[in-house]
Amino acid sequence: MLEHCPPLLADEDLVKLTKKFEEEHKECVRVLPYRKECDQVEVCLYVYSGKSGILEDLKEAAEEVFAHKQVNIRCLDLYNKGSRVLKVKNLEYPSGKPGRLEGNEVDKISDIISKNLHVFSNYRNVTAVQPSLKVTESKQTTESCITVYVLGKGHIPIGESEIPQSVGGYCVDVMDGFWYHTAGKPWESWEPNDAQKSFKHLRLGASIGVQGEKASGTLGAIVEEKKENGSNFYLLTCNHVVNGREQPQIIHPALNDYRNVALWNLRWYMLCLKEVAPGPRAGEINDLLAVLGDLADDLDDFETRVREKFNIVKEIEGQHIKLIKDNTTNPDEIVGFVEEKYKQPFRHYFPDDVEVRKKRVEKLCNTKLPELEEYKHNFEQCLQNPPRNVATFTKGIKSNVQLHDKKYYVDAAVAELSPDEVDKLREIHTTKLVGTKYFPNGKCTTTNDIKNVQELCKSGRTTGFTATKDLLREWDDAPVYLRDNRTFRVRNDGLHDSLRVDRVQVFRESEPEQPLSQPHKESERDELYDSDEKWHYNCLCIPSERYPFADYGDSGAVIFEKCDGSSVELKCLSGFGVLFGIFQTGYKSFALASPLEVVLKKLSQEFSDKCSLKLVSDFCEK
After folding, report:
1. Exposed, middle or buried by CB within 10 Å (0-12, 13-18, 19+), for 369?
2. In a 3-state reduction of DSSP, which class is residue 37?
3. How far, in Å, CA of 298 to CA of 291, rounded?
4. 239-253, 394-408, 541-555: range with highest mean pLDDT
C-alpha cells in the first residue's frame, strides 16, 4: 500500500506564507523559501534576536504554519552566529592597502543605483546596494562595480530569478550582508557600564529611553535653537529611539538600564557574599537569587521588592560576618546548620593555628568585604537615582530627505530639555561625553568634507567611547543604500507597506521593462515606483577595527570627527553623523549613520524656515 504524501504547496502560495510569517515575527530579518536537491523545499528563517529560546520558538511556530506541506524549516542565527551565516572572510588587498573609488565615480554609480532601485527591489534576499570595487576570491580588484548585499548568497529564493550581472554599464558583485537598527535590547542581563548609570548632569553618550518602555538608546548631543528672547535646548538622538507615541517623555537612564544596574549589583552582592562569608543562611541567598528574574516591570513595585531582598541579604551578611569574626564561635556547632557545599568554606576561617586565622579574617576585612561594599554602594546609588523625565519629544524625521540635489536617509529626533536639566548643565558650563576628556567644539563636518576625515569617535550607551583612526588610508567604502526591512512586512490585505493603492501602482507583466540604466517614469495615476518607501539613501559607513565601533543600544550617538589628533586642545570634536544601525557583511562590519549637517538642517526646517539648530559646546549663564 502506497504511503499518502501531502500535496506540494504551489510556489505562489508558499511565497505568500513566508511573507506572512515574516510579517508576524519581527525577529525574522528574512523568511525565504529555497528549492534544494530532489525538489525538496526548505524555508530559511534568518533571525536576529538575543532573546533566550527565540530560535526554538520560531522554528516550532514555522513548523506549525508549514505542517503537512513537505517543507523543511531551518533557523539561521544572525545574532550569535552571524559571521558563520555570512561566511565571513578576511579581505585581501593585493596593493597592500584598500583601494577606493574616486569621488566622481562614487557619485556616478550612486546615481545609477538610485535610478535602478526598482530592479533590486524585485529580489527579497537583497538587503543593501553600494558603489564599490569588485572582490574576486576574497581579493579586492581595481574594477568599479555595484555591490549587492544579500542573505543566502548562491541560493535563489523560490519565485525569483538571478540578480542581473550588470546594471547601467557596471558589473554587479553579490556579497553576503545585512543590517539592523541599534535600539537597546531588553531581553538579557549584562554587565553595566558608566553610560548606563544615572548622571546628575546629562552627558553625551548616556542612556535614554521613553517613559513606560524598556528599550534604550543614546543621548547623542545637545542642540540649541536661538530666539530673540533666549534659547531652547534639545537632546538629539534617533527618531526610532524616542518617537514611540505622541509627545513621549524621555527618561534618563532608560528603564531597562536602571533595572539592570540594580539587579546586576544586587546579584553580585549575593553571589560574592556566599563565597567570601558563607554561613548557616547561605541557602536563603540561593532562594532569593532564583526569583530575581521574576520581578515586576512596574517601577514602584520593582524598587520595593529589590529593596526587601537587599535588606534580607544585608541582615544575612551581618550575621555571617559576626560569626566569622567572633573568636568564641564554635565552628563544629555552626556547620550543623550550614548546607554541605558551604561547610568547608565556613571552616576556612577557623583553622587550628591562631595566627593563620587572624590573617584570614584580616584578608576578609581588608580585601573581600570592600568588594561587597562596592556592590552595595552601587545598588543603593542606583535606587536613589531612578529614571527621571529629562525631555519631551518635539520633532523627528525617519525618511529620505534632499540636500544639495542629493538624497540622504535621516533617522533623527530632538526632544526639548526640561528647565531643570538645562539649569544643571549650566552648572558645569561644558557639554561632556561619557568616557573621554574631549568634548564638542560646536562645529559640524560638511557633506563635502566627509571623505576627508581622518579620525572618528563616539560615546554610546553600550560600547562607550570608541574611535577609528587612519580613515584616509583605510576607509574605502562609499555610502550605502539600505533596504527598508519594514517594506517586507505584508499588510493584512496582502499588500506590502510600500504598495499602498492610493499612492503607488504595482507592476504588471504586460508592461514593457524599463532600461536598467533609466528610472521608471510616473504613471497616469501617480508614481509607478516609490523608492523612498523601500530604501534608505546614502547612509554613511564607518568601519569597525579590532573592536566594534558600535552595537545595540548605541542608536542616537553622535559620531564626531576629531579635528586634530596631535593637538592638546580638548575642545576638538566636530559633529559628523547620527548613528542608527549596524551593517554586517561577509568581509567587514560597519556602523551606519546619517550626516549630521543634513540632520540639523532638516530638523531645523521641521520647526520653521528661520530655525537653525546648532551643536552646543558651552553653556553660558542665563
Report:
1. middle
2. helix
3. 16
4. 394-408
